[in-house]
Amino acid sequence: DIKGFVFDLDGVITVTSIYHSKAWHQIADEVGTKWSDKLANSLKGVDRVHSLARILKAGGKETAYTDQQKKDLMDKKNHLYLQYVDKMGSDEILPGIKSFLADLKRHHYAISLASSSRNSPKVLKKLNLTSYFGKVVDPATLKHGKPDPEIYAKGAKILNLDPRRCIGIEDAVVGVQSINAAGETSIGIGDSKVLHEADMVFPDTSKLTLANIKKHMDQ
Ligand code: BG6
Ligand code: MG
């Protein structure tokens, strides 16, 4: 029986994956890496350090920047990203998420957050969703980022739940892989071809309901 839900944030609860992309796009332009949908997709769910590494690699610039310059680029990206976040409000919550969270609460499911983003407390506050997420994995405490299972394993642990009693929800391929490796049931939000490793995929968050999940699990 499922007892808990472990959520990704960017691209599942809110539109911020777009803002991350826009900010990284600007950094890619600055370092001379050609931006593409493929590159953008490969950054989804990936932490700051590894996102920059991928952008530099895509432009053949792995060794062109010092550690200090890389730090400055990451700070710049975060500054650009936070300019978008500052303007956010609860209308940036993705369709159906608010009622899904309320439904989970009503049915006494445990809820935690497993986002790679260090900005998630700020984003939750902007969305007025902090009250749902008393349990948040702090990505600063992790040894390994997604697709490693560590973050989703912690998402279950902070709920005192066996991972097998949890469902993880993700929009990123590496996120689905992390959920699966942690031994949880995975829900992908997005393109079922891209997220084919997920136990079930919904095209968008409006389809994310307890009824639809139960339907899938009974199949
Ligand atoms: C993930 C996003 O949730 O967090 C990535 O999908 C982002 O795009 C990563 O790079 C790290 O976020 P932050 O806010 O700590 O730089
Ligand atoms: Mg995401």
TrEMBL record:
Listed GO MF terms: beta-phosphoglucomutase activity; magnesium ion binding; sugar-phosphatase activity
Site label Important for catalytic activity and assists the phosphoryl transfer reaction to Asp8 by balancing charge and orienting the reacting groups, positions: S115, K146
SUPFAM superfamilies, A to Z: HAD-like
Names of the cofactor(s): Mg(2+)
UniProt keywords, alphabetically: Magnesium, Metal-binding
The keyword Magnesium is annotated on this UniProt entry: yes
Residues given in the record as substrate binding sites: 8-10, 24, 43-48, 51, 77, 115-119, 146
Domain of life: Bacteria
UniProt cofactor note: Binds 2 magnesium ions per subunit.
GO BP of this protein: carbohydrate metabolic process
Residue sites binding Mg(2+) per the record: D8, D10, E170, D171
Signal sequence range: none
Residue numbers annotated as active site: D8, D10
Entry keyword Phosphoprotein: no
Entry similarity comment: Belongs to the HAD-like hydrolase superfamily. CbbY/CbbZ/Gph/YieH family.
Descriptive protein name: Beta-phosphoglucomutase
Origin species: Philodulcilactobacillus myokoensis
Organism lineage: Bacteria, Bacillati, Bacillota, Bacilli, Lactobacillales
